[in-house]
Amino acid sequence: FFAIFFREPPKIQTKEKK
């Protein structure tokens, strides 16, 4: 699932990290 987050825009990655 991590690969999907990386593929998505950085916006989503930040949301997930938070």
TrEMBL record:
Keywords: Chloroplast, Plastid. InterPro entries: PSII_PsbT. One of its GO terms (biological process) is photosynthesis. One of its GO terms (cellular component) is photosystem II reaction center. It comes from the Eukaryota. This is Photosystem II subunit T. It comes from Grimmia montana. The gene is psbT.
